[in-house]
Amino acid sequence: MPGDAEGSRRNRPYFFLSYAHTPQYEAEAADPNVWVKKLYDSLCSHIMEMTELPKGARVGFLDQGIEVGTRWTDELSENLARCQVFVPLYSPRYFISEQCGREWWAFHQREIHRRARHVEARESAIIPALWVPVEPAQLPKIAKDLQFHHSDFGEDYATEGFYGLIKLSYLNEQYERAVYRLAQRIVRVSRAIGLEEGPIHSDYESLPSAFGDKAHPPRFDVTVIAHCLSDLPAGRIRDYYGDTPADWNPFHPSSSRSLVEHAADLVQSMNYRVTISDFETEADRLLTTDPPTAPALLLLDRWTLESPRVQKLMAQLCKQPRPWISVLVPQYRDDQIPPEREVQLLELTDRILGARKVVGSGYRSRNNGIRSLEAFSVELHKSVSQAVMYYQARAETFPPAPEGQPKDPPWRGRPGYPG
């Protein structure tokens, strides 16, 4: 019932307004961020009228008056985990702000998990708003991919942004219209999507930025070694596999997407261009003794370690330190394996990847593998960070992205991958 749906939202903010703080240009000047607070208050007022929220309910969240060094990160993380819609307030300062990029990343992880659990495409719970118009060249890929039509809130708004509408008194009517339409969109998207709550990050300040950073390598390789339906070992459950290694889904039925697609989304959320490949096909490139061309992540189906071909490749991977290639070994907690078979696989994995226990040899998931989709996201974040750190120690410069680079990730449209 609608009333029940409203009741479940009472303790969850409808929206998180993310913005870049504008510094004061004079010590005596008024706080320039007061206009953002005006926008926020108007949105809250409209949403109260459009919903059945009771008095005292949490309508939105706005980061105000936060001082560096306090425990404000707990409050930020909690609200990013619980809010229903994320509203990034675009400005030239926004996309150079590590804090704003971290907020976007934390919220976007919830959308990626929703996509893994419900494969059907649905609109985003990220609703961008213009504070000051931003040139397309200033937008990171994650913002460009939203393809949001700002003119839906009015042509003057699309040209001037909220700040311009506020400051130009003759555009006051257009300002009120744009605020009202944004509030309508927040309520509609919240009801249509029903985004689940996410994790509260205790290590919030260590989270990556969705916009990358200046020392950010442009590309990241995600590669996979897995069985497919045509070569499954005796007794192996077919539900986790497809026609190609790229179809491997070790977290079925918790996830309805292949692991390599899910991993690519998670890596792309850190503003990398992702290249996806089959490790066996690309082994010569990935295992060359030449300097690395990109950091990489290997997703390993441990059942393939019984293959002499895979054992040879893993021996080659471990023979010389290649710490810029991280290795993740999922082992779903609900995967029913006979106990004696489980012992064999654990011993085989430890023996073949034993060299990766040495500090500096590269990241490898431990503790009997990765047991859940949520744990996979945590491990992936760590593995990407370490692969990039080791890659940067061996790469002097990162070449600029080529002109006219296609918007879609390079793996789209390849055989075995979604179009």
Describe the structure in brief.
With 419 residues, this protein is an alpha/beta fold. 37% of the residues lie in helices and 9% in strands.
How would you describe this structure to a colleague?
- With 419 residues, the protein is of the alpha/beta class.
- It has twelve helices and eight strands.
- It has helices spanning 2-9, 34-50, 72-82, 98-117, 141-144, 155-167, 172-193, 259-268, 283-286, 308-319, 339-352, 373-394, and strands at 15-18, 60-62, 85-90, 129-130, 219-225, 273-278, 296-300, 325-328.
- The strands form two sheets. The protein has a four-stranded parallel beta sheet with strand order 2-1-3-4, with helices on both faces. The protein has a four-stranded parallel beta sheet with strand order 6-5-7-8, with helices on one face.
Helix content: 25-40%
What is the H/E string? Answer: HEHEHEHEHHHEHEHEHEHH
- How is the largest sheet built, in terms of strand order? 2-1-3-4
Question: What would the principal axes of the Cα set say about the shape?
Answer: elongated
Q: What is the gyration radius calculated from CA atoms?
A: 24 Å
Mean of pLDDT: 87
Strand residue content: 5-15%
Helix-strand makeup class: alpha/beta
Number of helices: 12
Low-confidence residue ranges: 1-7, 403-419
Major β-sheet profile: 4 strands, parallel
Counted beta strands: 8
- Termini, distance in Å? 38 Å
